[in-house]
Structure formats: structure tokens, C-alpha cells
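for the writeup, i need someone to sanity check this before i put it in the appendix. the sequnce is what the collaborator sent (i think, or maybe the updated version? ugh). structure was predicted straight from it, no edits. if anything looks off just tell me and ill rerun, i have time this weekend
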Amino acid sequence: MKRLLCLLLTALMLISAAACSAKNPQTQPEEQTGNPADAQPEAQDAGTEAQPNDGTDSAVSIDDLPIQPIENPPIELTDPVQPIFETEGKTPDVSGYGDFSNLLSAAILSGTKNQNLSPISVYLALAMVTEGAKGNTQAELLKLLGCKDLAELRAVCGGMLETLSIHEENSTLELHDSLWMAKEIDGAPVAFREDFLKALADTYRSEANAVEFGTLSAAQQIADWINEQTRGKIDVKPEALHFDPSTLAVLINTIYLKDNWAETFDEKKTAPDTFYGADGETTVDYMHRYDKNAVIRQGDGWIAYRVYLSWVGYVTFVLPDEGVKLESLLGSPEAIDKLLHAGINRNCDVSLMIPKFKFQDKMELTEVLKALGLKLSFTPAADFSGISDLPARIDSVLQESYIGADENGIEAAAYTMISVRTTAYNPVELEKIDFHLTRPFFYAIETHDGTVLFIGTVTEPSVSGQN
């Protein structure tokens, strides 16, 4: 009898599940297929027809546009290690660079202001730090970077650095890495692990430099290197780089990109028009083009269009539908992924109108990375014994970037800098002594070699004209 009841119960559960499934069919949006690298810019051929432009000719070089520097303050979190995106109490699983890029972008981009982020620069900088991590600290970093071990991470990063390099007449894409090592800390020389140095040199093609942190000279050398690798687009001042004597190492990745549009914009058609921003209306210079037989992707509340570059690939522009706020389309890794890959393709002719723009951005990523799962790396419990014998932790993660677009193409640059600080540095607190010249005193004025120029005593400082 009990067996019969169990069979009847199982049958009822199966019938109920089937009914629910029929009421809620899963539909997937049609996605673009094919390798983006194989996409041809013919779909955006504007050479045959151009849309008339009634505006006055007012072509302006991008170099004449004012740069808008932005410095985003650290993200305020009630609990700095609380995950930003909740998925059953855990941060989302990351499988490779694509997931990491979506995760970081969703955590950073608000949609309410100008922001520019280079996820790949952050990824490579974190990967270099991972080479010096051990135990749970390494596992934590590998999880965020979406790799099961160092071998997989090296394969991913080595492949990026190998393939993402372009040096053509009008197209450049460069990634550079560097390691800056402390010569000594608290008066003692610092020895770095040979395996760590070899991994950075072999996989990341990293330069290695020894400096004296805490001096203006070290800051100047690092600033000069960043400025050189970013072609002067990010003017880093040495005074802005603060490294105290407890700094063990600084790891930096830079990226520089400059490429022409596959089909450039006619400067004669550039004209001023209104931009309806969150803070009101402004007049900006717009580039105009007419693309025949092109492809638009349409999603829920937005449309997307790819403008192809000569060598690097393309720029995906996403426009919210009228009445839809940009910030409502962001906010999660899945939302970012949809804007880049989902939607339904529609063949059409496209009247293209893009504002000329350029700005700089600067953001401290420490709190964001803590919220994305790096709980150990920033604490004294971190294990970076793969770098040196000295106990150390990540002190800060900073990215500064530039982006600009004009009729010819696009130019962008960024650097990500990770400072690793030793936790063993404890300056000796010296005895405080009051040296107050409140009694008669002696003095001597001497040259550098000890030659006395003046010598005397002061018994009454207020007396003057005494013979």
C-alpha cells in the first residue's frame, strides 16, 4: 500500500512540473553569430551615399576640445567585503576574462556620468600580483580572474599579450607591464623570488626596476614610464604618486590604442547640435555619416550599433530608447553581457550621428575589488610569499585613463597600478625631546666642509646695538 501511495505521489509531481513548464516557456534572444574579428565593414560602407547636412561646416580637431578630467571617489560600502552582486550569497562565478570584464564593468559603470574603464588592464595587473600569491590568497585571486590555476592564467594572459599587438601605419594597440621593486626596507636589502621575476618576464614581458620608494626620484621614474607607454595621453605627475618607505613592489599595466574608423567621417559634415544630458541641454559637435545595408541590434529598451575600425575591431555604441534611463540598463554582469551580445539583428540603412568627445578618468578600485571577493589580499593575513620573504599585502589598486573620438578614429589609453606594501615595516618610535631655545645658547655658522664663518652666544636675544 505504501509503495502504491509513493508511485501516485511521484506521478502527481511530474504532472505538476510539466504544467508549469508549459506555462513558462524559456525564450532566448537571437544573438549575433560569427567571430567579431571576421566581421566585414562592408555593412557600414558609406562611400556610395551620404546624408545631406544642413548645418554649417564647423569641423574641430579633437585636440581643440577641452579635456574633462574625472576623478571618481572610492565607492562607499557599508561592509567593504560584502559582495556587490548577490547570487545565493556568493559573488558570480567567473569563467575567463569575458566574465571578469562584465563583472567589473557592472560594478563600476553607473550610467550617470562620464566614465572610462579598461578591464583588460586591471585583469593583467591582478594576474601579475597573483604570480606572487600563495595558498588561499592565490585561490581568491584565481577565482576572481576565472582560472583554475597559474598555468591556465598564464595561458590566458600570454595569449592576450601575443595577439593584442598591432603596429600599422594608422593603427596601434600596445600592452606593457612593469615591476618596480624596493631596493631596501628599513635599511635592509630586499630579495625577490627568482620564480616570481621569471614568470613576470616570460609570460607578461615585464620590465623590472629597482627604486627607493618614498623618494621623489622613484615617483619620477614611474611617472615617466607611464607617460611614455601611454603616449603622453595620461600626464602623470610624480607629486601625485605617493609611495611610503614600506612599499615592497608596484606592478603596472598600460594599454594604448589608436585606430582609424574603417569608414572615416567627413569633417565638412561635422556640425553643432543639441545633446540632452542628465544635467540639461548642451551644444556639441556631431559627426555625421550614412551607412547603407547595415545591421542594428535591438534589445529591450535599447538599440546597438557597431562602428568598425581599420584594424583593432569595432566600437559598440548602445543607445537607450527614448524615455529609458541609461542607468536602468546597467547594474549587473548579465545586463552588461546583454548590451554587448544579445538582441535581435535588423538590416537597415543607418543615419549615424556621433558626438566628438574626449575626457580623462581616474578611479581607486580597492573597495570594488574587495566587494568582488578579494577579502584576503588587502589584509595582513594575505600571503604574497611568492614575491619575497617579507609579509605583504595589496595596499591600493588605481586606474587612470583617457579616451577621445573624432572624424578619423578613436584613441584611448590607461594604466592600472597595484601597490604591494610590506606588513613587517614598523618604524621605531623615537623618544621625543623638547629643544626650546629659552635660555642663553651658543651658535656657529659653518660651511659644508666645517669651516666656521660665524660663532657666538646669545644671552639676551632682544638686545641690539651692543658693543
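The first helix runs from residue 2 to 23. DSSP finds nine helices and 17 strands in the chain.
thx in advance!!
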